[in-house]
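INTERNAL AUDIT FORM
Audit reference: QA-55
Scope: verify that the stored structure record matches its stored sequence.
Auditor: D.O.
Record contents follow.
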Amino acid sequence: MTTPAARRRMLNACCVSTGWTGRSRCSTLSGSLARTGYPRTRPGRAGVVSASQTAVARASQGIVRLDFGRSFFYKGVPVLNLIIERIPATFLLAFSSLVLSVLIGFPLGIIAALNRGRWPDNIIRVTTVVVNTVPDWWIGLLLLIVLGGYLGLVPLGGMSRAGDGSLLDRLHHLILPALVAATGGWIGFSRILRFEMLDVLNQDYVRTARAKGLPRLAIILRHVLRNALMPFITGLGGIFLLILSGSVLFEIVFSWPGMGRLAITAINARDYPVMMALFVISSFLGILGILMVDILYGWVDPRVRYGERNA
């Protein structure tokens, strides 16, 4: 059995949803229901939008205008300014990791596919399995302790030294975080490319090209790699999103001043405007990444052309 308060909320919802927002109309409806046994809703509250509904409407308008309010933890600083300051650092780490993932995983996948069942293939497969079982952040901590703490070859954290913003110094700080963040990427790329190349190598048109006497390098570059790149591009978008979402851990481990570190600070401080803004922007970046993958399809595969009609 519903309570009187629940009945009043249902009545107000009916008034708003049917367009009966006027006080007299809702009072008439309330009086009619009261005669059937439902308690009368006060005219002053009937059809009135609550404070929570007003707050939701204002927040939605702010999101459209990229106005996420002001931060609680950073003493009234606009949330958009905080994110704009940290987006370049996050994108620098993510794109660097993606480039390293391709540069490492692409040749490993080709070598493993062309040497199936032989020692290069076995070494690559065992290495990917072993590295994949170890968490990336643990590898980062271990390398940071050994290379940074004991050997002093890399900085212990941050994006640059105080007072030194040169390109060489930034690259020195970037190399270890990017390599660690690229670990999962090159493992995934090498596996995808190996599997797809093995599948393409068994196709009839590859056998025909071999029978015609085409050079092996020409067969691999023109026929095998081009047809094996479609799933590779799909993995490219997914792994980029994975690196972008995993930047939270890497930015904490390496004290990298990006959006991931800002998210952890906002969660610990219960800074809800910053948390909401980061969620919205991360979702938008995910959609943008998927869109870029769809655009790349038409560039790689001539059979896939969006917006073109057959003559």
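Auditor finding: record pair retrieved intact. Confidence is low (pLDDT under 50) at residues 16-46.
Action required: none
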